Each structure stands twice: as structure tokens, then as C-alpha cells.
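@channel sequence for tomorrow's demo:
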Amino acid sequence: MEIRVLTAADVPACLRLSADRGWSDSDVRWALLVEVSEVFGIDAPDGGLAGAVVLTRYDTYAAIGMMLVAQRYERRGLGGRLMRHAIAAADGVVALTATEFGRPLYERLGFVGHGTSVTYTGELPTAPATTRPTDHVTDLLAYDRAVFGADRARLLTSLPAGARIRTAPAGYGVAWQNGGTTVLGPIVADDLGTATALATDLAADTTTPVRLDVTSAQPAFAAWAAARLTRRESTTVMSYGGAVPGDATRLYTPFSVATG
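C-alpha cells (generated this afternoon):
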């Protein structure tokens, strides 16, 4: 059961692995991750994938996400093997968000918790638009790098089809479809008012429930989301090998919890 790099041909197997763990996911996100990240997997002798993990490299650090082991292959050390492989491939600072189920493994591997990330879903109230749409994502890359602390141009220039971008004088936000949910992220802004305006305007353009992932570094934005949406799962924000760069006070939501 060797570890290999998965390709676009493995997206259906990734979807089946997600379903096996009860994760709701779409081929849109898996296809994107295979394109912009490294997806490591272990083939199951009885077919499909026994496990997988995603490593997204940036120039200053890397993010690990989507750590999955098929139920029938639990407690065989596959999760630890995949994580150690991803950590070695990252060769530097690594960030992730951990479920309660996965956190003990990550702590044994040397990850340290720095806060929480809470998911909120539902429908946001509409309001007159105060931000503007744009198709020029390249114009946002320098600002994003200064706030995010790393170059994520490869991710931002590979947004899923139908993704929408809105800008304001002090920030920008993206909305993209993942299954039956519209993910609002990333939202990067200099202040809370800009972040909430971007989220509101992005949500007004969709007919599906929205999702916001908000860390404990953004208590005011979390309170705004909690007053309008339903609180879902909470995960632990963790890092390995040092502090993650970036200005957390201006990072209101990630692209996804799998990629940062």
C-alpha cells in the first residue's frame, strides 16, 4: 500500500472516500485540489482509496487538509503515514484545521493549536450593494500576498467556473460553488465593515445556502455571522514547525479550510 500522487482520474475515487466518511463534497473542489495542490493517496487492495491527504504549497509555508482514511482501514496507521509523508514533502511550516477526531494524531506529530475555526451556514439578509464585481483577479494578487503572507496566485487564478469576485476600496471577496453550498472565501479586508459588505453582496448573487469559515482571530466577524447564520462544526487551528505568516486580523475567511 504505497503512497502516490493522485491525478484528475482519481477524483471519482476521492468523492467515494469523502462519502465513506460522511463528508459532503463535490467534484468541483476535488478537481481544483488535484490541479493546484498535491493530493497523496493510498490505493486499497479491495478497490478505491484507503486514504488521502491534500498538501497545498505556498512560497512561505504549506497547508494540509482533507485527511481521510476509509472506515474499513481505520486503526492501521494509514493516517499517520499520510501525514508524515505530507509534512516531509512540505519541508517547512505547515498549517491545518483539525476535527476533534483528528486532533490527537496531529498533536502526536508535533502540531500546536492556536485557536478555533467555526463554520456558519444559511442565508444572509440582502441589502443594497456597496461593493463592485470584477473579473480581474490578477489586480488583487499583490494585496492578497501582503495580507495572506504568501503567494497564492496559483489558487486564485484557478478559481472554479462560475466563481464571482467583488472588490471594495479596502478588500475583496470570492464566492464559489461547492456542491449545494456557496463558499464565501477568501474574504480579505482592512476592516469589519468592508468584510461584512463583501459577504452580504456575494451572498445576494446566489440561490444556494452560503458557508463562512471564521477563526477565533475574528471575534467581531464571528458574532456578525452567528447573528445571521447557523453555527455548525468547530475545528482547531494548528501549525507545525513555527508560526504561520500573514495578518490574521485582515483574513476574514479562507478559500477553504483545506487550503487556507
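heads up for whoever presents: The chain has a mean pLDDT of 95.
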